[in-house]
Amino acid sequence: MKEKILKKREGFEGQQLIVVPRKISADFLTQDPITRQLYITDIGYYPKARYHYIKRPSGISQHIIIYCIEGKGWIEIDKKRVDVLPSQFVIIPANTPHKYLSEEQEPWTIYWIHFKGEISAYIVGLILQRAKNFRLHLTYNENRIRLFEDICINLQKGYGDDNLRYVNMIFNHFLSSLLYEEKFNHAGQEERQDIIGQTITMMQEKLDQLITLQEFSQYAGLSVSHFSAVFREKTGYSPIEYFNHLKIQKACQYLLFSAATVKEIAVRLGVEDPYYFSRMFSKLMGMSPSEYRNRNKTAEH
């Protein structure tokens, strides 16, 4: 039986809709070194969008994000239909057949964005790795909505070069809030760190000491092998490599903002052999401590 669908031809009360002129996209967005990586082509907000229906048998050339904050609907992507509920967002890859419909009794309220760019397909791929049937759950966050509203407000101000760069750099942050929701939700908030986070804090407090892998694992309350595996999974580095990175980070500060010799800096960082310290520094920074100091020394006035 063929489904009966009521379609809304007019707009929705309180809606926002901004379409970036295609000439702007061609003349600037696809040419500028910043914006050509990732840029918005269309953006909108549809509150309580009853009978909102779209059907695109061949898809469109842009990727689409639909973020539902209220009400219900469904989206069919490449012949797979998923229900869309509050606090869910759906990603529709470019050139993918799709259609969607807002529920009549509880129509959805959605934020949506169309976007393109050299790295857009890669970002969509990252999102799809986390998504189930093109859909992810999101915790409602006012800061994310503010990012969206900031994009809209500034696009309404015109299409100057600086404004377009600013808007699309915000969009990068907006996408990061979707892809790395946990980090975004905890930004600026006090939180109980996991054991790896606690260990890293301990590393930062003990940069003047020489600490073994066994001591790190003992602090974490894990076996050496399990601790090493979990630490690498969390950070991408072994515990000792990470600790050395923090030491070199601190060494750079000493070299730039103090008159301490290389030997004195090595001692401050718990490394008794200054030659070993210099080799470690050179390996990570691509130059010796002295070269680093000379290249980056603040000019005296």
UniProtKB/TrEMBL annotation:
Signal peptide: none annotated. InterPro entries: AraC-bd (IPR003313), Homeodomain-like_sf (IPR009057), HTH-like (IPR037923), HTH_AraC (IPR018060), HTH_AraC-typ_CS (IPR018062), Tscrpt_reg_AraC-type_HTH (IPR020449). SUPFAM superfamilies: Homeodomain-like, Regulatory protein AraC. Pfam families: AraC_binding, HTH_18. Keywords: DNA-binding, Transcription, Transcription regulation. GO terms for molecular function: DNA-binding transcription factor activity; sequence-specific DNA binding. Residues 197-295 form the HTH araC/xylS-type domain. This is Transcriptional regulator, AraC family.
